Amino acid sequence: MGAAQAPKSLWISFLARAVKAKLRDHVGAVLTCSIGVGPNRFLAKTASNMEKPDGLVVIQPEDLPECLFRLKLQDLNGIAGAMLERLERHGIRTVAALCRADREHLRRVWGGVEGERMYDRLRGENVVLPPTQRSSLGHSHVLPPRLRHDAGAFAVLSKLTQKAALRLRAEGLLAGRLGLRVSYRRHGDWGLETRFAPMQDTLACLRLLAALWAERPRRREPVKVAMVFSELLPCGKASLPLFPDAARSPGLDSALDGVRLKFGPKALYFGSAFLAQEQAPMRISFTHIPDLRLEADTRAGGLSERALLEV
């Protein structure tokens, strides 16, 4: 370990232990965490899984790749059932064999550049991925017993759609397709979707949602609802319509977004979501880290009562 690396490694280990101590002091001994530190994100994630529960593993560049040899192939992020079978067909059955394979061999195994990226990750290199285009954006929610009826389900769908439309605008995206899905007790799932000229207008999206909802099966008990925007594209890449759409209301959205960002998401909303204002709170999921500016109820005062806009 070089002279400059040693203090840095010690400092990172100190921070990791401080995080674990804070959890223990403020939450208790029941909730623990395993922390991994490595020269890149892939190896840090691998390190976090090497010692559980309540572990702390630091992978140093000079320890590579030998420190990984005791792992199984499926312990590495990105290697699951199908990939494991492919590796075995190419004669790679251990992490040691994977680390000894050259770049071209791994390219053939993965069938492309991802094999070269794995080669670099295993050696501690930072792999810069090309920017990806989001393909969909949506929300889902399990209904509480008191809202397991048509009015309650639609109110939750309205809230989810309003949240998703706000995210579209915040991320500079337009959507060209809206889909909804409802899970029913004893009747399985039902879903429907519609396509439209790319947009991000909340009121127009709610009208489309209402049209889809009108096609739902009747006399069933909904237990879960979900909506998703897809066919996304950046605002700057959309073709302008030949004729203006009277249903669009960008000025209204700008005004409402400004109020919500200042006073919180519950300060002003379309009335079709009235029954669901305590539902679908901000959550961190596997695919979405929420933006606190958009979803946290951080009102600083100024609106003592909630304002509703009837759709």
Write structural notes for this entry.
By secondary structure, the protein is of the alpha/beta class. It has 2 domains: 118 residues, Alpha-Beta Plaits (2-Layer Sandwich), CATH 3.30.70; 174 residues, Dna Ligase, domain 1 (2-Layer Sandwich), CATH 3.30.1490. The protein has 10 helices and 9 strands. Strands 3, 4, 5, 6 and 7 form a 5-stranded antiparallel beta sheet that branches. A two-stranded parallel ribbon has the order 1-2. The longest helix is centred in the N-terminal third of the chain and has 22 residues. It is globular and about 60 Å long. The C terminus is likely disordered.
Question: What's the topology here?
Answer:
Layout: H1 5-26, E1 35-37, H2 41-48, E2 56-58, H3 81-89, H4 95-100, H5 103-110, H6 113-122, E3 136-142, H7 150-170, E4 173-184, E5 188-199, H8 202-213, E6 222-230, E7 233-234, H9 250-263, E8 268-270, H10 292-295, E9 307-309
Parallel strand pairs: 1-2, 8-9
Antiparallel strand pairs: 3-6, 4-5, 4-6, 4-7
Output the keywords.
311 residues, alpha/beta, Alpha-Beta Plaits, Dna Ligase, domain 1, five-stranded antiparallel sheet, two-stranded parallel ribbon, 9 strands, 37% helix, globular, disordered C terminus
Q: Any idea how many domains?
A: 2
Q: Which spans have pLDDT < 50 for at least 5 consecutive residues?
A: 298-311
Distance between the termini: 65 Å
Which CATH class of the largest domain?
Alpha Beta
Order of helices and strands: HEHEHHHHEHEEHEEHEHE
Task: Indicate the structural class.
Answer: alpha/beta
Largest sheet: 5 strands, antiparallel
CATH topology value of the largest domain: Dna Ligase, domain 1
Q: Overall pLDDT, averaged?
A: 85
**DSSP, total strands:** 9
- The amount of beta strand, in percent, is 15-25%
